[in-house]
Amino acid sequence: MAIHPASVPPRRIDPDASALAKAAIVLLGLLVGTLAMAAVLLWADARDDGAATPAPAAAHDEATALPLNSFAGVVPTNAQTLAEAHKAYDATMPPLAATDVVKVHMTLKDMTVQIAPGVRYNTWAFDGHGAPGPIVHVKQGQTVEMTLTNGGAIPHSIDFHAARIAPNVAFKDVMPGKSFRFRFKANDPGVFMYHCGTKPVLAHIANGMYGAIVVEPKQALPKADKEFVLVASEWYLDGDGIDKPAALSMAKARAMAPDWTTFNGFANQYVTHPLTSKPGETVRFWVVAAGPTLDTNFHVVGTILDRAWVNGDMTRFQRKVQTVGVPAGGGAVFDVKIDKPGLYPFVSHAFAHVDLGQVGLLKVGNPAGTMSH
Ligand SMILES: [Cu+2]
To answer: What is the pTM of this model?
Structure first.
């Protein structure tokens, strides 16, 4: 079982043992230096995508600088097998409905899901399939008719950031066993968060009650060949979730010290099951940071964001930017056009997030040395 560094208590230094300690530190320093050099060499080697001889698989794995074979936090020893067996959340943009009114029905359910390989968590889930809830995709001007059925044990609600509506009317608590319906016209394009707004909101969002609604602008965007929706979020556990499912640690949530950070609810799932595109295709990422508290700093390793609709303002985009912050409760849209085959990590460039699982791969073409799945 791997132990997350955060769970290891700080070492005490005995001043009397300083000579031995110093020698050990020097040796450790040499070891770290050697390893770092080796890593840099591997990175440099595999980065040379013009090389005639494909690097072996292991070198490619190193080149991504990602924990392909290990996971942050506490995981079972068979984490890699469990990660491969996990069915990744489908990040593909669902099709639009042709009707003026788009009917969405979600049934809230208390359920145990995996949030990392072998790590179980007791969620309160929208639509009974864990976090995030389903991707809602509408066109600007369409009306969303939302029906919320509370199949859970306590009151819940749903707050759509895409709606201009009196929250005390539409976003009200729905009692267990009851349903509630409201409508709003999606007049503002962008990618928006939805979430449970029942108090304490921190607990309801932290327990998985969030998702994304994409409101596509009436005026067509530049053509994209592939479109993916990513919801960034973090998890705060009261235990490791291995022997028994974890529940929320409010203390960690308030301290903003997550055990795991994820895209679409499961740590590293798109490392094991990469999103795919062909060389030369334009890939569009619709990104929401659900939090509950932490932002995400969206970046694609090995390329530049060709277009960035910052803050989800669909009236203009920035060109050729490297990293864009998506605030908790916010959204943004990004286009990349990658010509050369390879594995391109997409990350929150606040790198503690990568270490805790907020990382995936965009597999462009069929690069040599790729993992087989
Ligand atoms: Cu709730």
So the answer is: 0.82
